[in-house]
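Archive record:
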Amino acid sequence: MTTSTTSPPDPSASTSTSTSTLPSTIPTRLLLLSDTHIRSRSKNPLPFPVPSIPGGADIVIHAGDITDSSKLSEFSLCLSYLRQLNAPLKLIIAGNHDYTLDLPVYSQRVEAQSKSAGMGQLTLPRRKGLGEVGEAKRLLEEARKDGIFYLEEGTHRFELANGARLVVYASPATPAFGSQGFQYTQEEGHVFDVPPEADVVISHGPPRGVLDVSRLTRTSCGSVELWERVKEVRPRLHVFGHIHEAWGAAVVKWPQALAGGWEGDDGKHKGHKAKGAEMTVLVDRGSVEEGWEDSKEERKQKEERVERIVRDGYYPLKYPEREGAAEQTLFVNAAVPYAPGFVPWLVDVELPRSGMDVDGKGGSTCAEERSGETNTRSRGCMSTTLEQLQIS
């Protein structure tokens, strides 16, 4: 598990304003997407255009399943798409379809399939366009010079170009289904070591009971272990994908103390209450897709909404205002279904100002190993310094 730090140039060199006189948080614009399942042979690798965002975004987050078959050409197509997005920082994680990034799993697969086919261990992956073991990872890591960071499981800290501080926990792990990458069995379980100061959690799969109901099985498919940890940490934002049919956004209002999970598990989550917490779905597929119960006026409204978001290339999402001192987390299932009206999300989130300890989230520091590389975008200049620390 790793932690990484990225920092901009020292702002104290150009201003003498005391941080005590500045707001403690900074509005930060995020573009969220997941499960693009890019196919190298498709005439239309992505079902939506490059978003036209006035002023651009501060961060782009891709929550995994970058590719459909984990081919090098598919990773390259996704990187080309990300480079077109107007944001100084892009964060991506792997999903189960991106199995060549799971080096132990891919190594075993190459060895087994090569023996079965009577080929050398380099011949088979090359023929299928998958690359050697570790080649896909190197391809993604080379994109750091363009502000694109591939995050492995662990905690990553960034000092943003807009002056905010971001602590991210990333994890590609999902409950086992099939024989792809980054999966764990119920017997194995998984430890999601989200730090208490995390602002944003990026996981490929959803937590149990939150935007995770499969239409096929009509059951919740999310991770119990992930839910248990997220409800303790209560990050500002949790973005994920994996379950395409559960695309949507929901807010959970946390009580002072919370124990247990959701009451009931009937798959109907609007207004669904946990033991001491309440979740409200803000947007779901029914907000875009026409239903047989829709009135003529509702159908017209949905048609206009789809026309607008397809034109803009993003779905605007307002972060719910807090009521009093209650803590809350915005959950976004950003898995992009290949259908009209489903595009990346655009949301503004208040992040702590760099150097400030906000609501107990902050104050942790890391020594930096400066690479000297810089990345310039329309929203500012960010130094791509990176530190790798081994943590227990």
